[in-house]
Amino acid sequence: MGRVVLVTGVSSDLGGRFARRLSSDPAVERVIGVDVVPPPGDLGSVAFVRADIRNPVIAKVIAGQEVDTVVHLSVRPGGTGGRSSVKEHNVIGTMQLLAACQKAPSLERLVVRSSAAVYGSSSRDPAMFTEDMAAKRMPRSGFAKDVLEVEGYVRGFARRRPDVSVTMLRPANLVGRRERSPLLDYFRLPVVPTPLGFDARLQFLDEEDFLSALGHATVGGVHGTFNLAGDGVLTLSQAVRRLGRPSLPVPTMALGSLGGVLKQAGVPAPSRELTEFLCFGRGLDTDRMRRVLGFEPRHTSESAFAEFAATVTPGVLTLPRPVTPVAGTVGTVGSGGHG
Amino acid sequence: MADAEVIPLGTRGRPGRGSGSRNPSSAARSLAGPSAARRTSAEPPSDPKPEHADAATEPTTEASTEAATEQAAQAGQTEPREDAGTDAPRVDVRESGAGAPGDGIPVSDWLAAFTSAAAEVFGDRYEQRLAEFLAFLRRRVTGDYAVDEYGFDAEVTERFLLAALRPIAQKWFRVEVRGAENIPTDGGALVVSNHSGTIPVDGLMTMVSVHDSTGRHLRPLGADLVFKMPVVGEIARKAGATLACNEDAERMLRGGELVGVWPEGFKGIGKPYSERYRLQRFGRGGFVSAAMRTGVPIVPCSVVGAEEIYPLVGNVPSLARLLGVPYIPITPFFPLLGPLGLVPLPSKWLIEFGEPIRTDSYDEGAADDPMLVFNVTDQVRETVQQTLYTLLMQRRSVFA
């Protein structure tokens, strides 16, 4: 008998793709998608329930459909609406969903999309965060605070329902063709303002890899918290250069106010949270992802970012591809001249 | 106009001294070289290397003799033949310089100059070296290079940072390295050094010395203040530094890196000149437990000379508190001479690496035994202190 999976946040692009992909998995019998707005595209064989996870109706869906696996994907960094409504959705939504899950006897697994943002970003950070480390400076606002609170509720749930295996995934910044996030919007700017005198280390995870990891966690059911990231790091300056975009070093103080001015003009600009991230960056240790979760991403941070770079309009500083390979240039040029 | 002159003054007086007459002076002729001299005398030419390209592109505008004008005109109109073009280049040499500046320097000259400059800078195999350099530039501009997980950029460190520090180490401080054979050639090791000099120049010099004598990169552990500061933090990460915390230290040592640590920290680097070469407390021994957990040897390193580069005679604690830094140094020269006071005194440096202290013989829980950690810390500290005294005895004078 296959599993009955409830997926929250299916109307987002990533959620919809995950639900579709999951419904074709032989180990899964039924997929039920939940969101407040109808999905923009076709969800295939996924059953869609239009419901708010903050509403007790979600408990009825879980009990009535005998759901045994809940995949909570609707914790999102920003998107539509103001900060308070996003927070309401992220934190209160998770709280209500977990309350509903706690009462459901059929539930066996819970998979939560958290974020590497819980580690914060500061000058006192270790180079690589393992899952056991906490943020050196507790995030006091923004998405990171939401995630911190969500994780707190999930841990509470895991304590109260020890029979449920809880998988918490902390992906690094997702990149991909259709992924939208404050960081990617920032990279899409024609001239990228960078914090003067800082060069953050960044890690990326390809969105396809993230979908695979989610599927792996949903079907495999490994209890624990896992960092997800592509191997290696890119520095911010490196990433901007790879996009071929000119960077504009701005003093850190001004980056925030510049962000404010740009926001007024309707241009996506780095928030304060993003500014800190752009100063210090973050690295994730993915040893546990490999050993315990048993997941191997196809893309490194570098190749994931390269895929993203190929999908955005090339910047003005993009150089043409080199004609001859660099190694042994003289020999190659010489023989090319003769031939 | 010359006839209107009443008083012939200076060079306007006699022809031949730059008087503006058509015939150049003898002095000017001799300056222009033998070919120009021959031109005025309308003597048949015997130029060994006539430059036809120049002759063809340069229709002459003016010449002193009829013959030269005719020949030059021929050269300008027709394809340069061996006989007709022979006289033309010499005309050009003068006329292009004086009359037609817009023509500029021919492309071939540019190429030749570029080639010789490249050969000058890059040596014999300049083509290869130049191609490598351009490839390097391209990699930097397109971001097509790799950094490790700590942000270490080996390429930029070797090409720029170490290359800039090397002359300072060799010429200014005349660093003398001893006991470089005590640094393991591979695998993890922890270099523990004394700290002094107001500004962590000793760390930089140790990095250069280690790299030049072993070929390995010393990966320094820095205080969080380093990474909080703009520019400094960026350069530190690019040079291979990371935060001095147990997690990073153990991670680097497990990864087989050669890690450098200065356990005295700000207490050592910011101590007054009167306390020079007196080691401060070696932190809380965190470096020893990191070495014990990873089983790597500890290499004691003693640096003599760094104490004298900026003799710290005073401090402004209130300003330091205001700026959030551990101290504001006052040296005999620093605020007094302004930026000139930032030039370090050229003391003679000695860096000695001592015999490695093995930590792999301790059993499992040794790193959590505070007494043992304290003892090993003390042993390392004593070794460095004794070596410092020995080196000081051997040093003839501070600047010798």
TrEMBL record, chain A:
Membrane-traversing stretches: none
Entries under InterPro entries matching the protein: Epimerase_deHydtase, Lipid_A_modif_metabolic_enz, NAD(P)-bd_dom_sf
Pfam families: Epimerase
Organism: Nocardioides iriomotensis
Record-given protein name: NAD-dependent epimerase/dehydratase family protein
Domain NAD-dependent epimerase/dehydratase: residue ranges: 5-178
TrEMBL record, chain B:
Bilayer-crossing regions: none
Name used for this protein in its record: Glycerol acyltransferase
Annotated PANTHER family: MONOACYLGLYCEROL_DIACYLGLYCEROL O-ACYLTRANSFERASE, TRANSMEMBRANE PROTEIN 68
Species of the source: Nocardioides iriomotensis
Family annotation (CDD domains): LPLAT_MGAT-like
Biased composition (Low complexity): 20-30, 56-78
Keywords: Acyltransferase, Transferase
GO cellular-component term (any): membrane
Entry-linked InterPro entries: Plipid/glycerol_acylTrfase (IPR002123)
Comp. bias (Basic and acidic residues): 46-55, 79-95
Start and end residues of each Phospholipid/glycerol acyltransferase domain: 189-306
Stored SUPFAM superfamilies: Glycerol-3-phosphate (1)-acyltransferase
Coiled coil: none
GO molecular-function term, one example from the UniProt record: acyltransferase activity
Chain positions covered by the region annotation Disordered: 1-105
